[in-house]
Amino acid sequence: MDLFVQLYRRLDQHTRTNDKVAALEDYFRVAPREDAAWALFHLVGRRLPRAVSPAELRAWAGAASGLAPWLVEECYAAAGDLAETLALLVPPAATPRAWPLSALIEHRIRPLRELSHEERRARIEQSWHELDGDARFLYHKMLTGGFRVGISRALVERALSRVSGVPAAELARRLMGDWPPDASFFERLLSTEERGTPNLQPYPFYLAYPLEQAVSSLGDPGDWQAEWKWDGIRAQALRRAASIAIWTRGEELVTERYPEIERALAALPEGTALDGELLAWREDRPLPFGAMQRRIGRLRVSSDELREAPVIFMAYDLLEFNGVDIRAQPLSERRARLEAVLQRAPEELKVSPTLAFPDWPALAALRAESRARRVEGIMLKRRDSPYGVGRERGAWWKWKVDPYTVDAVLMYAQAGHGRRAGLHTDYTLGVWNGETLVPVAKAYSGLTDRELEEVDRWIRRHTIEKHGPVRVVVPELVFEIAFEGLQPSPRHKSGIALRFPRVHRWRRDKMPADADRLEQLVALMNAAQT
Amino acid sequence: MSRIVQATSAGLYCEAGGFYIDPWRPVAHALITHAHSDHARPGHGAYLTAEPGLPLVRERVGAPVEGLPYGERRRIGAAVVSFHPAAHMRGAAQARIEVGGRVAVVTGDFKRDDDPTADAFEPVPCHELIMESTFALPLYRWPDASEIVREIHDWWRENQEAGRTSVLLAYAVGKAQRLLALLNPEQGPILYHGAMERFVELYRAADVSLPAARKATADDAKTLRGRALLLAPPSAHHSPWLRKWGACSVGFASGWMRVRGARRRRGADRGFVISDHADWPALLQTIEESGAEWVGLTHGYGEALARYLRELGREADVVRTAFIGEAGAESDAPPARESAD
């Protein structure tokens, strides 16, 4: 772990990009390949299957440190990070041991899933005796998943490219999909020899930036292809020699969750890779997003669900044709081939229609129809653009519809996580239902740091009750919350669930009585559901 | 039975002696535990503080202050008062107050770690202990200060090798002088921000041994950048003053740095866990050694510690002070900008 801990510290301690890339380079040059492979696995955000629940870890760490559960929770609320909290609470290691990263994972993490509850606990307690400080913190991160040190995948690829001489875009491709974090994979990854695309491997996704400037600044409308921005799950569908795969943008292999798409893909010629969106769909338009949500988590889908939430694949790009990577071709050519490939495809595979617009005001008028069409807005792609890697500015833009907004009253507050640890930044906000406030959203604040501190001080002075880490405050502050949609929810007291709610701004000009009413949200929801 | 020291709207008050301890509203008689601005305020009628802290408190309040040597007893009304080292900073004192055979101790801010600029903390037996609880969570355990001092020097050396100026952010009064006393001037030039100058002078005048170091000038920013260690108050972070120093690595010296999120929020490159407050084990040790029947807690995570103590069968409460609501509104959180830590 020593080298990996050093790498973590350097990444954590330096705020400048160049320093971070240099730290990664130094690590990958000296680390043994079997350790480097695991480091890479975690750095690009992959996770080990969970071997222990956070609740178990909390309970055992509490016992090891002789602290009552409520006190562990107080500490967690103050530190804002469970892995860190528990690493700090457990007493120092009695018999420190320098584990290589790969050996730690092979001996102290991977076997856990096979063990009984009691054996698992014993193994973890043993690890606490062996690991201290940052090593223990990183061990917890690997145990609980969610290893983030503030570096993007692109930076990791850049560093590996410098170490190996393999172009970053090629590394990005080799790092897609499922790969074994072992020495031989790491060796192949950095090999300068040309390799074909393995059978199930997807391509890196090309991502758009939000359009913040005026759309007219994009120049000649004729240079741009416009499509609806679909509100589903971004995915790649692969039809290769005798195998079919559907990968989400989170690089999750979800083929079996969408049997209707899997069947339809079988009808395509071998050597085809589509980029597109999984959408719950009926009668020429998307179902409300709630229908899609019912399918996302289902590993085995029932016939009821297949009937009530049928899914299609809305293709918008073709990345591989006849087994050849055509990402470097201009979009206009890829598009023509896409239409040809899908011309006689089953109805579950659709081509995302292009929108005809003579000028920008005409496109703006189409965008205004987004909500009625259950889409998120418009995508703009340069007709001459290649299919790139990752998020880039310039060739692809997403021009989303403005979010819904509602004015709501701050009811409860809780301390945040990460860099907001100890600061009350997670708000529960409510709207009026008759004379009482009913919570409608739990939102993380989108306020400035200065405003956050001011609200935090206000919260501390206006706390009526405390329930563990949750403070009930005087209902006085009004915030505008933005959200993307709303749907009925029996699990919420208000009967409504908002999608992606976030605090947009602080309405210092409004009194609590000026906040919105539940009826208004219900009316909005009914309009959206029809 | 009423307590010897009560919380009032003007501050902690001893009725038997007719005086307040670190009051925040103007009063006739004030005992001052130490020279931080939320404890030593101007506007009171008469001031009494521990002898070694006298010049520092006088600087703060701009009025005559009487000093009482540590351990010396003074009768005030029906109370007998004495000061005992609290080690929070130079001259910091616990106030021991005896009334009719019962003893109360107000710790003020204190620490149990070594500090070359302050007398070591003295445990004082008492019946009623009013104790600060800024860091009263088991998360907060300080590493050995000598270890942290070594880390600071290693960081300084790395920065020198990379041609970066080392900027060490620390509270300007107490913490800055303690750090100064711990730094090795043989490694390179040590400079400090103008906000620290007056108290550095007062420490030197009191014969506290501080290494060669001086106030940073505009010329220094040109000639010593990349080599110097620059002590600055947290408010100097991101200031135009700091930008004159070229490439910098910014370290923050505070107990809050124990938690990663607190350091990230401040945007510091490095956090050094060195505090002038007691950590969790030191708080428990202090309660144990006092033998107190009742513990009153002020500042910070007092509610958590009070509950912890009650579960162990001890009498403990949070004592409401103005450190909640007024100047110290942030006292139960990692302070947003600057803290007397």
The structural domain count of chain A equals 3
Count of DSSP H/I helices of chain B: 9
Most extensive interface, chain pair and sizes: A-B, 33 and 28 residues
Q: Name the CATH homologous superfamily of the largest domain in chain A.
A: DNA ligase/mRNA capping enzyme
- CATH second-level architecture of the largest domain in chain A: 2-Layer Sandwich
Radius of gyration of chain B: 20 Å
Distance between the first and last residues' Cα of chain B = 35 Å
Largest sheet of chain B: 7 strands, mixed
How much β-strand is present in the residues of chain A?
A: 15-25%
Kindly report how far apart the N and C termini of chain A lie: 56 Å
Give the secondary structure arrangement, pairings included.
The complex is a heterodimer of chains A (530) and B (341).
Chain A: H1 2-13, H2 17-30, H3 33-43, H4 54-65, H5 69-79, H6 82-89, H7 101-109, H8 117-130, H9 133-144, H10 153-164, H11 168-174, H12 183-189, E1 206-207, E2 209-210, E3 224-228, E4 233-240, E5 243-248, H13 259-265, E6 272-282, E7 285-286, H14 289-296, H15 303-308, E8 311-321, E9 324-325, H16 331-341, E10 349-351, H17 360-367, E11 377-382, E12 390-391, E13 396-400, E14 404-415, E15 424-433, E16 436-445, H18 449-461, E17 463-467, E18 470-473, E19 478-483, E20 485-488, E21 496-499, E22 502-506, H19 518-529
Parallel strand pairs in A: 1-12, 2-13, 8-10, 16-22
Antiparallel strand pairs in A: 3-11, 4-5, 4-6, 6-7, 6-8, 8-9, 11-13, 14-15, 14-18, 14-19, 15-16, 17-18, 19-22, 20-21
Helix pairs in contact in A: 1-2, 2-10, 3-7, 3-12, 4-6, 5-6, 6-9, 10-11
Chain B: E1 5-8, E2 11-14, E3 19-21, E4 29-32, E5 46-50, H1 54-61, E6 66-68, E7 74-76, E8 79-85, E9 93-99, E10 102-106, E11 128-132, H2 145-162, E12 165-169, H3 175-182, E13 190-192, H4 197-205, E14 214-215, H5 218-223, E15 229-232, H6 240-243, E16 248-253, H7 260-266, E17 270-272, H8 280-290, E18 294-298, H9 302-311, E19 315-318
